[in-house]
Amino acid sequence: MQWFYICLATLLSAFCYRIGGMSKESAKLHFPWFPQIFVKSWFRDANCTLITLGYLLLFVPTVSWYWYVLAVAGSYFGLTTYW
What we know:
Elements: H1 2-21, H2 24-30, H3 41-59, H4 65-80
């Protein structure tokens, strides 16, 4: 069952990453049903990080709090500084 949740988190994160990286014109063409206010890079950065944190909180055995902070910081900074 955990594989299902890994796949679900991966698909949600991939969708957020794709929407956040699109231009408004491309988003209107490919995803006309999706609200245009979310076609911004902050949508990608915030939601991919939150999906990662949610998965860690649900399925990783309890660890010290600073490991969660490091995981969130690594995910967020990895998404925002990839250039």
